[in-house]
Amino acid sequence: MLKDKKIAVLGAGHMAAALIGGMLKSKLTESKNITATRRSQEPLEELRRRFDIHATTDNKRAVRGANIVILTIKPQMAAAVLDEIAPVCDKKQLFVSVMAGIKTEFITARLRKPNPVVRAMPNTPAFVDEAATALAGGAHATEADLKTAESIFRAVGKVETLPENLLDAVTGLSGSGPVYIYMVIEALTDGGVKMGIPRATALRLAAQTVYGAAKLVLETGKHPAILKDEVTTPGGTAIAAVHELESKGLRTVLMDAVVTATKRSKELSELYG
């Protein structure tokens, strides 16, 4: 799908590196077709050496002739970068944005052309090809544009397509979600240490437990409540622990975390885009 496409990746940081690595590893494209940009020369050079791609500090140079432009710049830089590249953009170029809170209509307005824009919200497990990404197409994006964007993000994990008005909620759920789970893993580890398990062992057990539980949900298709009931035997250890978690409000705390992060995403959208 991307074999003959020229791809510009603007603001090439960690997420950009994950996407470039995913595209190359899955053979969606070749390194010669990718040009990455970044203001800092040293990390840009490191990226060039790592993937054998083209690299430049000149955004306009990268965008000229590109078929796909992936925007991985910080939201607060969106207006300046889009204004910078607008004069050299072609209306047929597909823009794929991973900028949190920046709406597709803002990007189109800044480009001053009816470019197709697809907004994406991946998360950091993209670094190990296990991302959860949601996509939303802008006013000028076709089904083919969405398929193209989907192919990029499928190279680093799973993809869902949603209306754009739900992407702030996605940011609160899966975009910020790894942070919640890291804290769960850390807390489980500390619990194991408190009960006498060596920390390194406790960490491996906790992380594998979270990974295995998630895999069981995804592969069996069973509701988490059913899987929970399957291991909570009458009078057993699991139901005693469930009672403690319920009494301390675990569900409410996690739900509130998603709501709070969603609200913050909306605030950022109003601030920058």
Features:
273 residues, alpha/beta, Rossmann fold, ProC C-terminal domain-like fold, 2 domains, 13% strand, elongated
Describe this protein's structure.
The chain is an alpha/beta fold. It has helices spanning 14-25, 41-51, 59-63, 78-85, 104-111, 143-154, 167-175, 177-194, 199-220, 224-231, 237-247, 250-272; strands at residues 7-10, 34-37, 54-56, 68-71, 94-97, 117-121, 131-137, 157-161. The chain has an 8-stranded mixed sheet with strand order 3-2-1-4-5-6-7-8, sandwiched between helices.
In a nutshell, what does this entry contain?
The protein contains 12 helices and 8 strands. By secondary structure, it is of the alpha/beta class.
Q: What series of H and E elements makes up the topology? A: EHEHEHEHEHEEHEHHHHHH
CATH H-level superfamily title of the largest domain:
NAD(P)-binding Rossmann-like Domain
- Helix percent reads 40-55%
Average pLDDT: 96
* Beta strand %: 5-15%
CA(first)-CA(last) distance: 31 Å
CATH fold type of the largest domain: Rossmann fold
Strand order of the largest sheet: 3-2-1-4-5-6-7-8
Stretches where pLDDT falls below 50 for ≥5 residues? none
What's the domain count? 2
Radius of gyration based on Cα positions: 21 Å
Report on the biggest sheet. 8 strands, mixed
Number of strands: 8
Oligomer: single chain
The first-level CATH class name of the largest domain:
Alpha Beta
Number of helices: 12
What is the overall shape? Answer: elongated
